[in-house]
Amino acid sequence: MRRTLIVGNWKMNLDLQSARQLLNELCEGMESIAADDSLDVAVCPPHTLLFPIAKATADTPIHFGAQNLFHEPSGAFTGEISASMIAETGARYVILGHSERRHTIGHLEDDRMINLKVRAALAGGLTPIVCVGETLAERNTGETPDVLTFQIAADLVGVSQADVAKLVIAYEPVWAIGTGKVATADQAQQAHEHIRTRLRDQFDSAADTIPILYGGSMKPDNAGELIAQRDIDGGLIGGASLKAEPLLGIIRAALAARG
Question: Do residues 86 and 69 lie in contact, with contact meaning Cβ atoms separated by under 8 Å?
């Protein structure tokens, strides 16, 4: 059975004091949750907090990662950060291809750039959380399968069989994030199943080991139903990860759904 993974994406939120307080509350809350070796929890803070978060999560069950990287190892790339810079903080994960970077932030990253970043992350010893997903316009025109097929194929070009075990995929229905629309568990499962099938086309049976997370506004009240689906292995959590109790509620729901 695949491991369940809950990742909090803090985006551009929290200062050092509030981040430390949040982690303290998370650690205290997790002490009351039955230990489960099949569940991993991580947070992805802004880059400025990576070293403090490394210290704050030491000797705790919480892992951490970054929200982005640049594909070159070094050079004249003002404002960027490399895989090795992230790895030396002790980070395990890095989020790549997030919908906000694909569609709303400056670069408007394309799949070629995302693929370069995926390969740089793997070469640097990081686990990339590769985000894929369709917009509202693409869903309304029935393009969801084609969009997901293309993104999976393009983003993972050059990834070897040996690296499959280091991959995490996150399905982000862009149309269900901040729009008031909600993906049903059935809709989410259909997308995850399609992603799993395309991964099998590329990596054969090894694809069955890749966790696929749901990234479309998961909350404590819908987490259990979502994670109970056959191909949904956890969540990439945005707003609900900025306070301890909602994130702890999602963790409890995940344990119950997989238990």
Answer: yes
The residues facing 9 across adjacent strands are 44
- Which residues are marked as active site? 98, 172
Homologous superfamily (CATH) of 68-241 is Aldolase class I (3.20.20.70)
Distance CA 16, CA 219 (A): 25
Closest C-alpha among 153, 88, 148, 81 to residue 117: 81
Domain extent listing, the chain: 68-241
DSSP line for 13-61: ---HHHHHHHHHHHHHHHHTSPP-TTEEEEEE--GGGHHHHHHHHTTSS
pTM of the model: 0.96
pLDDT digits (tens, 9 = 90+) for 171-223: 999 988 767 677 899 999 999 999 999 999 999 999 999 999 999 889 999 99
Contact predicate 208/201, CB 8 Å: no
d(CA 230, CA 174): 22
User: End-to-end alpha-carbon separation of the chain, Å?
Assistant: 11
Asked whether 236 and 7 are in contact (CB, 8 A), the reply is yes
